[in-house]
Amino acid sequence: MQLRHAALSDVGIKRAHNEDSYLVNPELGLFVVADGMGGHAGGGTASRVAVTTIEQELVAARERAAAAFDSPGELETTPLADVVREMLEAACAAVFYAGKADPQLDGMGTTSIALLVHGGYALAGHVGDSRLYIVRGEHIQQLSEDHSLVNEQVRAGLLTPEQARVSRFKNIITRSVGFEEDVLVDVFGVRLEQGDKLLLCSDGLSNMVEDDELRDALRAHPIEDVPRVLVNLANDRGGDDNITVVCVEVVDAASGLVH
Question: pTM here?
Answer without folding.
Answer: 0.93
